[in-house]
Amino acid sequence: MDLRRLRYFVAVAEERSVGKAAERLRMAQPPLSVQIRKLEAELGTALFRRGTRGMDLTEAGLALMSRASEALALAEEGIEAARAIASGQRGRLSVGYMFVLASAVLPRLVPELRRSLPGVDLDFVELSASTRETLLLDRAVSVALCMPAIHHREIQVAQIGTQPLMLAMPSRSPLARLAAVPVERLHGRPLVALPRPQDEPTSSAVAALLRRHQVVMPVVSRVETVHSALSLVLAGEGLAILPACAKLGAPPGIVFRPFLEIADAIEIAACWRRDSSSPLIRNFVKSAEKVVARL
């Protein structure tokens, strides 16, 4: 049934007059009468009869009227829901995040998303270096906050910020006495490292920093998360070169120092499937950019 005709029917039934209904609908009376007749023809029964006080509903008209307003309200709700989803104000968004960003970003990002996207159902999934790409490609998460970005032909990337690289070490380390560490002082010292990017294993920010200064640090362990790296550093297994935001999740006994006269940084990126057309992702990226800018 044409919803437009149903609206015309409700207007005539409520006004009990084709003329008054036409005024309410801001249309001429003859076309409205034509639409009512077409609706009656479609249903195969009369919906109105003329009474002393105007247009009265027949028994069939009463039956239709009892459901028509509800049907129109449901249709309007559906239209509004579709518009809200199309504008990125409603829907479901699964947000992946890497552990290194949890303490620095989530306490600010989650309230911002709840405020700016109140109609969106949100859930959060912790990612590791080895799972982030797979979970995105398998659509287990809608968008991922990554450090560094994922480089894959099916994944779209938006850089939303950077974090300077710092040296993490036990507080008992001689290097902890320095306000800033010359990168040359790291030569030959053991390194606790995170997994290398699968697509570009020699171009990570840490590898680039060491290579540029001709510093060699033997890798004693490769771990999945910053938390594991810091635990091994605390145990005295080696040093770690990490983004500055990792300080927020560091256990007691770990200190961070900047590098002397070096401003190398690692990017923070929002990543999602290229074939995703959800406007929720666009709104998420705006909120994430706002939060990361305040780090």
Automatic annotation (TrEMBL):
One of its GO terms (cellular component) is protein-DNA complex. GO terms for molecular function: DNA binding; DNA-binding transcription factor activity. Residues 1-58 form the HTH lysR-type domain. PROSITE patterns: HTH_LYSR. It comes from the Bacteria. Belongs to the LysR transcriptional regulatory family. The keyword Transcription applies. NodD regulates the expression of the nodABCFE genes which encode other nodulation proteins. NodD is also a negative regulator of its own expression. Binds flavonoids as inducers. Keywords: DNA-binding, Transcription, Transcription regulation. PANTHER family: HCA OPERON TRANSCRIPTIONAL ACTIVATOR HCAR (PTHR30346:SF0), TRANSCRIPTIONAL DUAL REGULATOR HCAR-RELATED (PTHR30346). It comes from Bradyrhizobium ivorense. Gene3D superfamilies: Periplasmic binding protein-like II (3.40.190.10), Winged helix-like DNA-binding domain superfamily/Winged helix DNA-binding domain (1.10.10.10). InterPro entries: LysR_HTH_N, LysR_subst-bd, WH-like_DNA-bd_sf, WH_DNA-bd_sf. This is HTH-type transcriptional regulator CatM.
